[in-house]
Amino acid sequence: MYSSINFKTKRGLKDAVAKGTHVAVYQPGPFGGNPPRDGKVTLEGPHYPAPHTWYAEATLKDGFIVKVK
After folding, report:
1. Rounded to an integer, what distance in angstroms lies between the CA atom of residue 52 and that of residue 13?
2. SS3 of 38, please?
3. Residues 2-53: pLDDT tens digits?
4. Which of 14, 22, 42, 44 is the Cys-Cys partner for 52 at CB 3.0 to 4.6 Å?
5. What is the DSSP string of 16-37?
């Protein structure tokens, strides 16, 4: 899954979530369309076609990331 904002680093994602920015998630491609609203997801970034250089586990609440590990 990807975050709705194309963060170049995991630190950028963590900082945005800590500031209270509403960041959602999505699954591109033929398997996408139904991201969970609550629970844990695995993220990768930056977005394709750039090579993925970071991976993170995120906790969602009401469709937005509330915690990044």
Report:
1. 14
2. coil
3. 999 999 999 999 999 999 999 999 998 887 778 899 999 999 999 999 999 9
4. 44
5. HHHHT----EE--GGG-S---S
Is the CB of residue 26 less than 8 Å from the CB of residue 34? no
Distance of alpha carbon 64 from alpha carbon 49, whole angstroms: 24
CB neighbourhood size of 38 (10 A): 10
Residue 44's φ and ψ, nearest 5 degrees, are -140, 155
- Domain residue extents for the chain: 2-68
Give me the long-range contacts of 37-40 (CB less than 8 A, separation at least 24).
37/62, 37/63, 38/62
Record the pTM: 0.90
